[in-house]
């Protein structure tokens, strides 16, 4: 028996969402972010579907090289940059752009001759406080890169928002102000600021390059939104099927720990999916599951391979019926709330099986 659980990827929805990016930031070039295996959707298939992107961005050098080996010709940006001369040589060999976010990387570039100059993106820390040179060091860092023989002539300047997912958070405007103040002193040909949330909510951040991530996959980038709010189409549908329907007496305790007891005699369905497939173990009782298009609640603990659902409201349910865990008719944003996490994590944690 093959596993019933499957993730179905709608490549046309992916392409539609890229068009939404272009509509929202009409004057900017688009770097499609496809790190973490394309947010769990399959990096190579995502890159092929998004072939009209102006560039791609990944987090790991292995991802970047895999894209080049697959024939991707667009610029590829390595968001976490490099750490040693071996990685630098590999980036130069495959013509991969790199983010420079620390003074030690600038020193390494100054000390390492390369077969071809590397195109770099200087990251400035404007308030995220994760990666990036300080505002005080931004101009010096930019000038050092411009003077470095191992760096291509064009040095693009970038930063990253910490709170753009909250439309009302004033810290995004503060970061914008700091960034534009910093680059005013530089002879920077272009810059990049906007993530998915900023693309949709902060037009003043669009600049020359935008970097959409989660919105490409049809998920709202906002803390209080769903895809439909911004006319996005979900790309992934996670589904399985009912493999058992059992009748239990009032008071029967279900599953590991017996954390949920039947309030009356009732039918309980078993769906072949669990945390071994990437469905969140933290999903609480009451999390919706679609059986034949009708919502029924999750009951009991999520197991490695199975979950239980309350079928009292769906007496016509039968073994083999399709169960949707998230997708077009059941927003992944809602499931994330029920599991006290974010949609990004749910998508990235879907396993190969």
Describe this structure in words.
The chain is of the alpha/beta class. 27% of the residues lie in helices and 23% in strands. The protein has helices spanning 11-24, 35-39, 43-49, 61-69, 85-93, 103-111, 138-147, 171-183, 196-201, 332-338, 343-348, and strands at 6-9, 29-33, 55-58, 76-78, 97-100, 118-123, 151-158, 191-192, 209-210, 236-248, 253-254, 260-261, 266-271, 288-291, 294-299, 307-310, 322-326. Strands 8-7-6-5-4-3-2-9 form an eight-stranded parallel sheet. Strands 10-13-16-15-14-17 form a six-stranded antiparallel barrel. A two-stranded antiparallel sheet has the order 11-12. It is elongated and about 75 Å long. The chain starts with 5 loop residues before the first strand and ends in a 5-residue tail after the last helix. The mean pLDDT is 96.
The pLDDT mean sits at: 96
Portion of residues in beta strands equals 15-25%
Supply the number of helical segments: 11
**Helix fraction by DSSP (H/I, runs of at least 4):** 25-40%
Helices and strands, in order, run as: EHEHHEHEHEHEHEHEHEEEEEEEEEHH
Tally of extended strands? 17
Overall body shape: elongated
**Which class do the helix and strand fractions yield?**
alpha/beta
- Please summarize the sheet with the most strands: 8 strands, parallel
Walk across the major sheet and give the strand order.
8-7-6-5-4-3-2-9
Distance between the termini: 13 Å
C-alpha Rg (nearest Å): 24 Å
Question: Unreliable segments (pLDDT under 50, ≥5 consecutive)?
Answer: none
């Amino acid at each position: 028996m093959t596993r019933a659980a499957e993730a179905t990827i709608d490549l046309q929805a992916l392409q539609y969402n890229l068009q939404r990016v272009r509509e929202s930031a009409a004057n900017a070039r688009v770097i499609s972010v496809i790190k973490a295996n394309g947010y769990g959707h399959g990096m190579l298939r995502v890159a092929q579907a998004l072939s009209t992107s102006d560039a791609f961005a990944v987090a790991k050098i292995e991802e970047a090289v895999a894209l080049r080996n697959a024939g991707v010709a667009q610029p590829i940006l390595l968001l976490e940059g490099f750490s040693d001369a071996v990685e630098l040589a590999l980036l130069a060999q495959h013509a991969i752009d790199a983010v420079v976010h620390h003074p030690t990387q600038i020193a390494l570039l100054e000390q390492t001759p390369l077969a071809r100059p590397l195109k770099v993106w200087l990251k400035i820390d404007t308030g995220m406080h994760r990666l990036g040179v300080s505002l005080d060091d931004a101009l010096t860092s930019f000038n050092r890169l411009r003077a470095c023989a191992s760096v291509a002539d064009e040095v693009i300047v970038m930063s990253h928002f910490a709170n753009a997912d909250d439309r009302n958070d004033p810290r995004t405007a503060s970061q914008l102000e700091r960034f534009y103040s910093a680059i005013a002193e530089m002879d920077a040909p272009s810059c990049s600021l906007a993530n998915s949330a900023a693309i949709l909510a902060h037009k003043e951040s669009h600049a020359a390059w935008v970097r959409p991530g989660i919105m490409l996959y049809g998920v709202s980038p906002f803390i209080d939104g769903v895809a439909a709010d911004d006319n996005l189409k979900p790309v992934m549908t996670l589904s399985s099927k009912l493999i058992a329907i059992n009748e239990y007496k009032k008071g029967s305790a279900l599953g590991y720990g017996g954390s949920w007891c039947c309030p009356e005699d009732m039918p309980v369905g078993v769906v072949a999916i669990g945390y071994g497939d990437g469905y969140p173990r933290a999903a609480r009782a009451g999390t919706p599951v679609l059986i034949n298009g009708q919502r029924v609640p999750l009951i009991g603990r999520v197991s490695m391979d199975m979950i239980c659902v309350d079928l009292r409201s769906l007496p016509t349910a039968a073994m083999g019926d399709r169960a949707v865990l998230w997708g077009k008719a059941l927003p992944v944003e809602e499931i994330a709330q029920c599991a006290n996490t974010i949609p990004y994590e749910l998508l990235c944690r879907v396993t190969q099986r």
